[in-house]
Amino acid sequence: MAVESKYQVFISYSNEDTDLAQSVFNFLTSRGLRTFFSKVALQAIPAYREAIDDALNNAQVLIAVGASAENLRSTWVQYEWGSFLNDILCA
Predict the structure, then answer these.
(1) pTM of the predicted protein model
(2) What would the pLDDT profile of 38-56 be if each residue is shown by its tens digit?
(3) What's the Cα-to-Cα distance from 18 to each of 1, 59, 85, rounded to whole Å?
(4) Backbone dihedral region of 35: left (phi > 0), alpha (psi from -120 to 50 degrees) or beta?
(5) pLDDT digits 0-9 by tens, 57-74
(6) Is the dihedral of CA 71, 52, 61, 35 positive or negative?
(7) Which helix (DSSP H) or strand (DSSP E) does residue 54 occupy?
(8) φ and ψ at residue 31, rounded to 5 degrees
């Protein structure tokens, strides 16, 4: 029997787009999707990079949220997208 991953969806966003990402998170969770949103998921977690990597490794979908192309080029969004893509290519 396959183990169900903690998250189905991973939301990647820059700090400038926190409010927009929060809206996406609220929409997805209201429909029952287990969604990783760092503002919620990383509260009181000191090893946040490990938590992000774990969520990326197990999520089925990544949604990049950005109000501008510049925001989508932020360091963390690029890292998260690259990690997710790498997991797909190496699967």
Answers:
(1) 0.89
(2) 999 888 777 888 989 999 9
(3) 37, 20, 23
(4) beta
(5) 999 999 999 999 999 999
(6) negative
(7) helix 48-58
(8) -100, 10
CA dihedral 32, 88, 5, 59 (to 10 degrees): -40
CB 63 within 8 A of CB 37: no
Phi-psi region of 71 (alpha: psi -120 to 50; beta: other; left: phi over 0): alpha
Q: How far is CA 24 from the centre of its chain?
A: 11
| β-sheet bridge partners, residue 9 | 35, 61
The single residue listed with the structure tokens 């991973």 is 10
Residue with tokens 């966003």: 13
CA distance 24 to 19: 9
Cβ-count burial of 44 within 10 angstroms (0-12 exposed, 13-18 middle, 19+ buried)?
Answer: exposed
Q: Are strands 9-13 and 35-36 parallel, antiparallel or unpaired?
A: parallel
